[in-house]
């Protein structure tokens, strides 16, 4: 790994969420597409979130671009989310959402299968999220 262009493709996505605040386990299953854009790449994810037998359609979008040797991930509206090293993975820059803090880590060691783990804590949130990506194309 090392360049944004190496992430481009279609992925099968599975996400397990341990919501400690609500005392529930959630599971997301879907697909994500990372496609090149004039300013970097667009991440588009769609799928179904299963919450204790209830199923909800879910989607999210991010903007990715290179900043030197790192990849910067922004929300679809352009706000900063986090920055990570595409060569070694590892911890990302922490993200504050109000008084809650998101601490993430990329594991790229099994490429083209990779994962992102988020530990989220604060007055409103307390959960662990592990997302696994498997290149489908």
Sum this structure up briefly:
With 137 residues, the protein is an all-beta fold. It has strands at residues 9-19, 24-37, 40-51, 54-67, 70-75, 80-84, 90-91, 95-97, 100-107, 113-121, 126-135.
Structural class: mainly beta
Major sheet description: 11 strands, antiparallel
Unreliable runs, pLDDT <50, ≥5 residues?
A: none
CATH topology: Lipocalin
Helix segment count?
Answer: 0
How many structural domains?
1
Helical percent range? Answer: under 10%
Beta strands, count: 11
N→C terminal distance: 17 Å
The CATH class designation is Mainly Beta
Describe the structure.
16% of the residues are buried. The chain contains no helices and eleven strands. It is mainly β and 137 residues long. The model has no long low-confidence stretch (mean pLDDT 95). It is globular and about 40 Å long. It has a single domain (4-135), classed as Lipocalin. Strands 1, 2, 3, 4, 5, 6, 7, 8, 9, 10 and 11 form an eleven-stranded antiparallel beta sheet that branches.
Task: List strands and helices in order, with pairings.
Elements: E1 9-19, E2 24-37, E3 40-51, E4 54-67, E5 70-75, E6 80-84, E7 90-91, E8 95-97, E9 100-107, E10 113-121, E11 126-135
Antiparallel strand pairs: 1-2, 1-11, 2-3, 3-4, 4-5, 5-6, 7-9, 8-9, 9-10, 10-11
